[in-house]
Design a protein that fits this description.
CATH architecture of the largest domain: Beta Barrel
Strand content: 35-45%
Bound molecules: zinc ion
Radius of gyration: 17 Å
Distance between the termini: 52 Å
Number of helices: 1
CATH class of the largest domain: Mainly Beta
Largest sheet: 5 strands, antiparallel
Shape: globular
Number of strands: 9
């Protein structure tokens, strides 16, 4: 099946069977159907990593088969520091159960992702707080959440 790379003005086409995102470690065919599946697999084994572009070197989230900044397909998985800064924080108050903090986190490597800040009162999270990732169970999968670094 052919698809068009819209990032480069539809001048390049790819056979999607060749597009599996970042290269797997150790070579060989990539067993993951999507970059998101590989991202979740890595989280499940305690690894916080995202694809980095081989051309412009930027790290992106969510994981894609193409670099969203330059359209390159040469991606590799980069281990992240797990450190970030709170860009915004909201306290959600459910009808039942305890309040929790939903925050946008700017990772030190660049990407911004939505997550939870845990281990602190939800109203105790402030813009600019430095946070560190913790991989936590949510339903039947592992997700990145964040804890405040000591001030
Ligand atoms: Zn790029």
């Amino acid at each position: 099946m052919q698809c068009v790379n819209l990032h480069k003005g539809a001048r390049r086409t790819f056979d999607v069977t060749e597009l599996h995102g970042a290269e797997p470690e150790g070579g060989g065919p990539n067993p993951f159907p999507t970059p998101g599946a590989e991202y979740r697999h890595r989280l499940a084994r305690g690894e916080f990593a995202l694809p980095a572009c081989g051309d412009c070197e930027r790290v992106h989230y969510p994981p894609r088969v193409l670099c969203p900044y330059c359209g390159a397909t040469a991606l590799s998985w980069r281990q992240l520091s797990g450190l970030g800064t709170v860009y915004s924080a909201s306290v959600l108050v459910p009808r039942e159960g305890e309040s929790y903090c939903v925050a946008l986190i700017d990772l030190d490597e660049g990407p911004r992702l939505m997550s939870n800040v845990v281990g602190v009162s939800p109203s105790g999270v402030e813009i600019g707080d430095r946070v560190r990732v913790v991989i936590a169970e949510a339903g039947d999968e592992m997700v990145p959440m964040f804890r405040q670094e000591r001030r």
